[in-house]
Amino acid sequence: MNIPVVYEDEWLVVVDKPAGLLTIPSPRNENRTLTSILNEDLKERGLSYRLHPCHRLDRETSGLVIYAKGKSIQKKMMDEFKERRVGKRYIAFVQGAAVKEQGEIKRPIENRPAVTKYRVSQRRKDFTVVEITPLTGRTNQIRIHLKSIGHPIVGETKFAFRKDFLLRAKRLCLHARDLEFLHPVTKKAVRLSVGLPGDLNDFLDKHA
């Protein structure tokens, strides 16, 4: 599988994860994950180091994932996430017409504070394209928060009933588009962005 590399230096690699692939194995111990594919490629190329994920995306979500070349760099990068010093922005297609042009969702998840900002970028006939900025990093936060305001992500099956909506998609229409962080070694600002994958662009064309 061809995994696009968006950024690479001596310490980090950032890739554009395709939808349908786990970042790391689930409790079911799937063997084929983004991490295993990347490390198998390194092994085949005779490289001795291994890549360690610094965060993860859901199986159905596409977009940017940061990997560290070594455990010590992984810990430094994960600390940046814990301290909320990594800026993340997503693009989501949500069901229906969002009433507000922008807003902030503050709803606890598993009794822990969770905050998500959103801004409408396009309005289509049966759905709205929104830019999402999670200010906290709870599991499934974006999916839960968008469902909570009555606009679940198109293709959502875990937190919404597919039968409740006429608009269907082959997968969850959520893409991790932007990352901003201070490099844990060089201390320089890193800003990365990756365009929508082909399947989401096709969805937009189909529902123009």
Tell how many strands the DSSP assignment holds: 10
Largest sheet: 10 strands, mixed
Average pLDDT reading: 94
As a percent range, the share of strand residues is 25-35%
| End-to-end Cα distance | 31 Å
Please estimate the helix content: 10-25%
Structural class: alpha+beta
The poorly predicted ranges are none
Descriptive notes:
It contains four helices and ten strands; from the N terminus they run ββαββαββββαββα. By secondary structure, the protein is an alpha+beta fold. Strands 1, 2, 3, 4, 5, 6, 7, 8, 9 and 10 form a ten-stranded mixed β-sheet that branches. Strand 3 (51-53) and strand 4 (62-69) form a beta hairpin. The chain is globular, with a radius of gyration of 17 Å. The model has no long low-confidence stretch (mean pLDDT 94).
SSE blueprint and pairings:
Layout: E1 5-8, E2 12-17, H1 34-44, E3 51-53, E4 62-69, H2 71-82, E5 87-95, E6 102-106, E7 115-123, E8 127-134, H3 141-148, E9 174-182, E10 189-193, H4 198-206
Parallel strand pairs: 4-9
Antiparallel strand pairs: 1-2, 2-4, 3-4, 5-8, 5-9, 6-7, 7-8, 9-10
Quick description:
The chain is an alpha+beta fold and 208 residues long.
Key features of this structure:
alpha+beta; globular; 4 helices; 208 residues
